[in-house]
Amino acid sequence: MINKRFKTIGLLICLFVSLTVSAQKYAFTHDDTLRGSITPERIWWDLAYYHLQVKLNPADSAISGSTTIRYRVLQPKQMMQVDLQRPLKIQKIVQDGRELTFRQDGNAWFVTLQKPQVTGKTESLEVFYEGQPKKAKRAPWDGGFVWRRDKAGQWFIATACQGLGASAWWPCKDHMYDEPDSMLISVTVPKGLTDVSNGRLRRVTEHNDGTHTFDWFVGNPINNYGVNLNVGDYIHWSDTLQGEKGRLTMDFYALREHEDSARRQFQQAKPMLKAFEHWFGPYPFYEDGYKLVETPYLGMEHQSSVTYGNRFRNGYLGKDLSGTGFGLLWDFIIIHESGHEWFANNITYKDVADMWVHESFTNYSENLYTEYYYGKDAGAAYVTGCRALIRNDRPIVGIYNVNHSGSGDMYYKGGNLLHTIRQIINNDVKWRAILRGMNKTFYHQTVDGKQIEKYISQQSGINLQKVFDQYLRDTRIPTLEYKVVGNKLQYRWANCVSGFDMPLQVCLNASGPNQRLMPTTQWQTLEKTGVKSLTSDSDYYVYVKQVK
Ligand SMILES: [Zn+2]
Fold this sequence. Notes:
Layout: H1 30-36, H2 40-43, E1 45-57, E2 62-73, E3 79-83, E4 89-95, E5 98-99, E6 101-105, E7 108-112, E8 122-131, E9 144-149, E10 155-160, E11 182-190, E12 194-196, E13 200-206, E14 211-218, E15 230-232, E16 234-243, E17 246-255, H3 259-265, H4 269-280, E18 290-294, E19 299-300, E20 306-308, H5 332-339, E21 347-349, H6 356-374, H7 376-385, H8 412-425, H9 428-441, E22 445-447, H10 449-460, H11 465-473, E23 479-485, E24 488-494, E25 504-508, E26 514-517, E27 524-527, E28 534-536, E29 543-546
Parallel strand pairs: 1-11, 17-18, 18-20, 21-22, 23-29
Antiparallel strand pairs: 1-2, 2-8, 3-7, 4-5, 4-8, 6-7, 9-10, 10-15, 11-14, 12-15, 13-14, 16-17, 19-20, 23-24, 24-27, 25-26, 25-28
Bound molecules: zinc ion.
Zinc ion is lined by residues 12-14, 336, 340, 359, 362.
């Protein structure tokens, strides 16, 4: 492989600015393959549990600590890959009290295990590390560690690492296919500062060196980039939701200096949960609670501790992405990042090439939230309004096994794909059952995008393969061509993948009857008198063109 990298995996939240990329050619490095594929040194062991212990030394932007990795042996192999990104360094690796030898290959570390690894057994080892982790240049897109101070001069620190990878700040198996069943996160910080991580706070241990340790326990599988630490002079308040699975605790953390604004703005969390439980089923992490935590960057879908930096304003930093006005009725980061609890944290991609499973559904969740409170037309206006942001620059699905994500169109075009599929299914009860069914069927699982495509086809009873291929793997927008020949209307799909066969709701003449056509790429004829023009239902993301 050559040393050219062209990656755009930083696009986590919506709105990425103009970082894009029309490059059609990619060259990937050996590092990309080690990071992005399920290597032989990864596949033989199954993550069971992590205990991350990390101590922060803000004065020199340094950290040190260890990860205990408990795993089940699936195949009897002796070589294990652990990931930790430069400039961090592994100091030692210990199994059963014995120090192991290891070699570094870029950001991957290959450990030779001494103890025979027996299939079916559970083993553990501890990886000790230290250094100054990568500083985020522009979190969350170009992530890493954020070291800031609040107005009072107190430290305000956070991590965000989607795409980049959790190994940017702690040793782990840095591939999304495998998640531990549970995790303990122990963060040591100077007294006066509070750490908020994922899950529930078990205890705070005071030390006599001016520091204290926060132990946060996550009782559910968690993906790597979902793990986070947030450190600051936080104030904390709580609420509860009587939700579909019973009582859900809600905890809020904001900087002391923002208490009033945060208490006002964070009230949106409860109606958000109510709307999303309606559409997607129970919040997926009742055991770990729901938290909303202020951060020094815009926001991220950290599991059970959604992070927030949207300046306590509605919209996306005060702007409406849809251009309809509906986007100003709610706080983009509270709605979008929390929507990811269902699509990202509950149902998680195995490979970032399928990042649309996170972002398309979560973009779509913004419109469903709007629909829940402001009506179906408002929701539709929101999602179709977002079409102005679609670029059709490259396919939504990225390249597998090299940690490469597809086009930023995974947001707005992906949302419009789902909105279009809802029209094809043409049965809102069934559509909602599919959204809820997905969250049940793939509960706490990592998936391939194809599994989601198949599930929607199967549950709807419609083969949507060509529709997915068109919108996820091609950049062309299908165009319904039609011509009027005497009293006949002829029509077909053009500018599309071979065999494209999507049904389409159309209106004949400007105010004429609605009709559902079943176009294919072959010309078809409708015997109809008096047809002069045809328009498509605007809920479908397609073009229509009259030809001679
Ligand atoms: Zn997102």
